[in-house]
Amino acid sequence: MKIEIWSDVMCPFCYIGKCRFEDALQKTGHGKDIEIEWKSFQLNPDMKTDPSINIDQYLADIKGFSLDHAKELNAHVTQMAAEAGLTYNFDRAVVANSFNAHRFSHLAKKHGLGDAAEEALFKAYFTDGKNIDDAPTLIALGTAIGLDANEIKITLESDAYAEDVKHDVAEAQHLGIRGVPFFVMNRKYGVSGAQAVPVFEETIEKAFAEWQQENPKPSLQVIEGDSCGLDGNC
């Protein structure tokens, strides 16, 4: 069964949602039968990368909040993250456009490393205070998960995967997705937001049960004969 996840690297609820979803998936025991595909979404495509801006001040400015209120909101999200086992350091977060990070994710997905790329990007942004729009940073993150440094460099210096990112965004609009994280299970069920683990678990189980009915495993009548098995016995 396929589960598609739309997210943006700099969305704090996306990392929390990822953690809760993974906890739920492990509880279901269906992980080996489920394909996870990460999809791009940009909450603020016009954002200008500026490492000199404090993330609290940026939030206050863009939302029209007071600085104190922005700090309170980020402190609340930091506590939510801690309860999910994550460490958020908003005092170190770098204001950065996520478009190149999404292109990087598509490159990783091509090599079967999409999930590893998302985890690396989230940790880089929320925990380590890295600039996720910075080419050397993305190259370092990529090589750490097994990508080729030169391929990452060539990708970032070109417009490679730009259309893939735009396609994901357009697809989200077509499906009526207006916020992230958003989890689409078997193209039948959608879960919006960083829901509690039981919500994810229940929806995964429901979608998986229906998928199994639609895709039954073949039942063969076997006529036994001399053969060699995977255990090496012949």
TrEMBL record:
Matching Pfam families, A to Z?
Answer: DSBA
The GO terms this record gives for MF are:
isomerase activity; oxidoreductase activity
- Cite the CDD domains for this sequence: DsbA_FrnE
Location of the DSBA-like thioredoxin domain: 3-204
Against InterPro entries, the record matches this protein to: DSBA-like_thioredoxin_dom, Thioredoxin-like_sf
Q: Which UniProt keywords apply?
A: Isomerase
The protein's superkingdom reads Bacteria
The protein's matches in PANTHER family, at most eight in alphabetical order, are given as: GLUTATHIONE S-TRANSFERASE KAPPA, THIOREDOXIN SUPERFAMILY PROTEIN
> What name does this protein carry?
Protein disulfide-isomerase
Source organism per entry reads Mucilaginibacter mallensis
